[in-house]
Design brief:
One of its GO terms (molecular function) is serine-type endopeptidase activity. By secondary structure, the chain is of the alpha+beta class. Helices cover 17% and strands 21% of the residues. The strands form 2 sheets. It has a 7-stranded antiparallel sheet, with no helix packed on it. It has a 6-stranded antiparallel beta barrel with strand order 2-3-4-7-6-5. It binds 2-acetamido-2-deoxy-beta-D-glucopyranose.
Length: 355
Amino acid sequence: MRYICLLSVVGLALATPSLRSASEPAKILESLNTLRQNSFLDWIVSVLGPDYPDTSASPAKRECPACGCGNINTRHRIVGGQETEVHEYPWMAMLMWFGSFYCGATLVNDQYALTAAHCVNGFYHRLITVRLLEHNRQDSNVKIVDRRVTRVLVHPNYSTVNFDSDIALIRFNEPVRLGIDMHPVCLPTPTETFAGQTAVVTGWGALSEGGPISDTLQEVEVPVLSQQECRETSYGSEKITDNMICAGYVEQGGKDSCQGDSGGPMHVIDEKQSYQLAGIVSWGEGCAKPGSPGVYTRVSNFNEWIAANTRDSCACSQAEEVAPAEAASTTTEQPEMATAQTSEGPEVVEAELLA
Ligand SMILES: *[C@@H]1O[C@H](CO)[C@@H](O)[C@H](O)[C@H]1NC(C)=O
């Protein structure tokens, strides 16, 4: 598991211990346990303030301005295990636990990020922060955008045994303002296997196996394998489920995602030059070892699950021209805001430039 070791350590510190002792009166232990939980929650509330309302079940009707997904910001592209340009990948997000970076994530619309289930499963959602517009973790620029988390949705089929369906949605306490610097990636074409295509993986993960995580956002190009090619590697056919997609240099190794990249994006570029989220960094045997490619969550199998669970957000379309009449009507209508805390509403700036 990429970065799973650190995850399990911090995760354990917060887990409520289950009652196993048969010799102690169960009721006393139970009430002690409840007390401990209650005071822990009191402490959280005192530190973070009251819980944010989760309005996703009965969302306020929002007017969504037109916007495009998957456009990178770059002037000169040379990929091969190197630092990205600042804000080159406008959907790149990081997850922080008690203020420290621990996983990657990807913006998929104006209120949700996608990540790996193993990055959030068992984590108390209120202690996770999502940070966008980060580049150098040691020297955060003024533009960074932080969001608290109102809800984490781990896929119901996620397996901690074989990491099948390693995917989760994170809902922000408030939408982000989309524009050139920050906008979502496109979801992948559902019928594509992406086998043989070149993918780009981005993250702040370790630059080498066992090495320290990176200060600056890195990118690496890796070839996507077919399911059969991946099952013929050292992993064997049982470990690679249909919900996984492998990428890497099987023969020579050398380039791969690594510890700390978990939850981040593996992109492919479509014929319109839009970036699609083909995979989510999930697991691998070591990093960049020959015979052990990186294994990613196959996002195209989850497009419907993502759509069904993010209906309260504004999504962007894929490199489509927006008809002038349509664009005008979205800007002249007053957005309808039912909840007080979103009175300002999600503004979408420079949407016409993105569309
Ligand atoms: C979970 O897996 C089962 C069996 O493969 C499938 O029928 C079901 O649709 C999956 N659940 C979701 C939410 O995708």
